[in-house]
Specification:
Elements (H helix, E strand, L loop, with lengths): L2 E8 L8 E3 L1 E4 L11 E4 L1 H8 L21 E6 L4 E6 L2 E7 L3 H14 L9 E4 L13 E5 H11 L12 E4 L13 E4 L2 E10 L17 H9 L3 E10 L1 E4 L3 E4 L1
Parallel strand pairs: 9-10
Antiparallel strand pairs: 1-2, 1-10, 1-15, 3-14, 4-8, 5-6, 6-7, 9-13, 11-12, 11-15, 12-13
Length: 252
């Protein structure tokens, strides 16, 4: 059975929801465009972030600690530079976040929404080349949906794939097959990627992407069921091009 690309996702704001894409152009040595381009930084961390340096997630709002983030939805229009924040289906903030005033407007919303959980006045910061991901390299994350299905077998209830916040979801691979691609080159359409290492999972996966409740303990379930806390792999683009839903993946 062929392995195909089931879904492409980007996360314009660190800790917030995914935006599905039908297709995307990838560039060698770069992450998925606009993925984790913005983040809500705590106080003094905002100053360092504004300089473009990568920082560990403790400097930002993030799901592992700030589950309330799952209550809001973000939509980013990269052509206009507009970021729209919605809660319960209603727009609660909007700004042209490629400009200082727009970032200030969005930060003001989070100052109120996350009051009591912020260290100092928040700022919406924009990444330079390195996105605000949990690793200091411009990687893409890849998960086979069969691996999530096998985890469901262990926990005996549905597991929403959105909990894992991957960039690329695959259909047709065997459960956990992608973990064996470390060190190998994989091809999706015209794009070649170097699979680097497995992704160890944290408390962010415990947050329900709809209710924002911490209603599962998936790292514990992974450890008990499989002897590890991995779900998916990181890969870097070594040859660019456009990929689209339905493209076939092969391992070289």
């Amino acid at each position: 059975m062929a392995i195909t690309l089931a879904q492409i996702c980007r996360y314009p704001v660190k800790g917030l929801n995914a935006e599905p894409l039908e297709r995307v152009a990838l560039t060698a040595g770069q992450a998925l465009p606009h993925d984790r381009r913005f983040a809500v930084a705590h106080g003094s961390a905002a100053e360092a972030s504004a300089q473009g340096a990568w920082q560990a997630r403790r400097g930002f709002l993030h799901l592992a600690k700030d589950e309330k983030l799952a209550q809001v939805r973000a939509r980013f229009d990269e052509e206009a530079g507009d970021l729209t924040i919605e809660r319960a289906g209603k727009q609660v903030a909007r700004g042209k976040v490629t400009e200082p005033m727009g970032r200030t407007l969005v930060a003001q919303f989070f100052a109120g929404f996350m009051a009591g959980q912020l260290r100092g006045a928040p700022r919406l910061v924009e990444a330079a080349e390195q996105p605000f991901s949990d690793v200091d390299k411009p990687f893409l994350s890849i998960i086979g949906l069969a691996s999530i299905a096998d985890l469901e077998r262990v926990v005996r209830e549905p597991v929403d794939a959105r909990r894992f916040r991957a960039n690329l979801y695959l259909e047709g691979s065997a459960a956990w097959e992608e973990l064996g691609w470390q060190g190998k080159v994989i091809r999706i359409g015209p794009v070649r990627l170097q699979a680097e290492w497995c992704i160890d999972r944290c408390a962010a996966t415990n947050v329900n992407p709809d209710s924002a409740a911490r209603d599962m303990n998936l790292p514990l379930a992974l450890q008990r069921g499989f002897g590890h806390v991995d779900m998916g792999i990181y890969a870097r683009v070594i040859e660019g091009g456009e990929i689209a839903q339905g493209d076939v993946l092969t391992v070289e």
